[in-house]
Design a protein that fits this description.
- This protein has helices spanning 23-34, 44-58, 152-155, 195-201, 204-209, 226-237, 266-271, 274-279, 297-309, 327-330, and strands at 80-89, 94-100, 112-119, 122-129, 138-144, 163-166, 184-190, 212-219, 249-255, 289-294, 323-325.
- The chain has 2 domains: 2-28 and 173-330, 3-Layer(aba) Sandwich (Rossmann fold); 42-166, Translation factors (Elongation Factor Tu (Ef-tu), domain 3, Beta Barrel).
- The strands form 2 sheets. A 6-stranded antiparallel β-sheet has the order 4-3-6-1-2-5. Strands 9-8-7-10-11 form a 5-stranded parallel β-sheet, with helices on both faces.
- It is built from 10 helices and 11 strands.
Length: 332
Amino acid sequence: MFLDKLPADEIVPFTFKVQYRRPVMVRTLSLRTCAVKVMDEMDDTERAAEFTGDALEMEPAFATAAPVKQAPSKKSASLLREQVLEIHHYTDKLFSFRTTRTQSFRFQSGQFAMIGLEVAGRPLLRAYSICSAYYDEWLEFFSIKVPEGPLTSRLQHIKPGDEILINPKPTGTLLLGNLRAGKRLFLLATGTGFAPFASLLRDPDIYEAFDAVYIVYGCRLAAELEYATGVTIDVREHELLGELAADKLHYYASVTREPYHHQGRITDLIENGRLFADLGVPGLDAQNDRVMICGNPDMTAQLRAMLGARDFLEGSSTVPGDFVVEKAFADR
């Protein structure tokens, strides 16, 4: 079975060798140097609100079964138009896809962008975290399927060659720069909340910044873990990243609705201490630990309260802290 490739508590080593400085890596790593900071004058909440407002404004009052191609509207003139390269369906509720990437499109690991389709002559956009690495030549996204969702009811039917609209101004709060220096980093996610962490795990900076990186991922069913498990395996087996993650990258997956070797909600596993007992490490410590959170609003609210009770301070682009939450998804 696919999941058997990655025992939950297995630690697999991985670091950049000197030979990583071959021409292709020098070119791709330069993306970090060239990366631009979007809308620096706005705080995280304002940026999230602006993006969400755009999405709601563009939402039509009806839905169709598949993407509708129309002549470009004035509203979509400033959007990037990328082509779908591949799609992978994991369950009847989850899928991922890759698109082309315009050379001028820059983003930081952990950010999201407004993406979508042209519907009835207007762009229909939603916030999607970027899963691919900042140096990849493609863009990758991880999505849920909502039968009656204005966008996902169409998006789940895309095929190679179809056009995806992307706002060229990514933003977000799940950035390494929004955290204070620490020793351990915990990435806590449920469902498609794993998406921004897929990009972060592919970033060599995360392994330079922390002694240990723990992915704690919760889903309802074991089949829904496939995307996150695959990304983790790819990182560990990557010819360049593999050595950086050695002895640092830890994966802990739990499900809530069927038997599995780890069961329970992330909040409960932290509160009762089972998470740390299973990993064989001490509990959360505000002095040394840093946390990133992305998932359903209820989990996010509970984790915020739990971390606050442990003297963790929330960070932002203006004041780095001990933990960060993606406000665009958590505050709706």
